[in-house]
Please model this.
Amino acid sequence: MKYQFTSEFIKRIPKTDLHLHLDGSLRLGTLIELAKKEKVELPSYTEDGLRKLVFKDSYEDLPDYLHGFMYTGAVMRNSENLERIAFELAEDNIKEGVRYIEVRFAPQLHAVGDFKVIDVMKAVSRGLEKAERAHNGSDPVKKGKDIPFHFGLITCAMRRFSKGFAPYYADILNTLSHAPIDEVYSAASLEMARTAVAAVENDNLPIVGFDLAGEEAGYPAENHKDAYQYCHSHFIRKTVHAGEAYGPESIFQAITQCHANRIGHGTFLFATDKIQDPSIEYPHKYVADLANYIATQRIGIEVCVTSNIQTIPSIKSVEEHPVKKMLEYGLSVSICTDNRLISGTSVSRELELVAKANNLAMHDLQNLVVAGFKGSFFPGNYTEKRAFVRAAIDRFHALEKELLSDNSKKA
Model:
């Protein structure tokens, strides 16, 4: 008999969220309040109404899933709002036992007029720092009955964009109207990379990673290799949305062209039927070699189960999700939310779904939790990170002893 977990245990153990989009994770009440203040038109001004019309339990397709971002993004274009949203996101995570988050966002989406890209990053950092100080100054942490909360920032570039995305993108499209469109996308991502590195070096912002988001098919990651090389050369870690809407080749490209330390989603890693390059003569060997390389190099996979079920029609349940095969393959998997509001989820919920669907034993659950801490782009030095991981493991064991009876722990 394998170990059984209670919801309380899952909620209280220390956890991470390494794939967490700021603009997909607002509190619904905050969105409504800020929309009224900023005069942003919503299809409903009640939480029930928005859950029925926009932020649903299930979505028809990816465009339906992405529809909500037009409302969240519209209220995230000044310092006050961004700082509040970031603070509340950290606060919500802390309440459910999450002790490390990496918040990813595209600063170029939120910069308007005199509110520059660097101002966007500073506002988000301030909000998260406020929540961090509050938790780390609490009695449980001071008395050693809880572990500290920490965070890192991941700045995102976009695989593609249009003038309607944001004023920044309209300006660069106008300025480079003579250039091939792929070069425009590349220029925007390189500028984002340079700004992120400067923010670390000049402003000491905790930017720990660089990401590439947006449509995979038709917009290859290699178009952004200059931005990734720039980050690589300045010791910024790299993650890429890959294998979410495209096949193993997209993941291969993220690793070989963009130096990816982690892969966002990686859902179709094992999908040999999605390989399109005719020069790949043996698809099964290609996938096996790719998965083995990812495993041995400890390249992390940021798995977002609920989000995948909502956006990928071929995956209809947690049991059908390839996370089971990823774990069997020995991959370094971390369980993430993607978008807490859009997907209506939390880290505790995602972890419990995976644990139940795969009948995880205690050591399996611990390995899954610890993989998030170990695979993080922690903003401190290596010694500090190791101490933080050790503290998380010790806390896990203490809660196991406190919350699970002897009978429930017998195999």
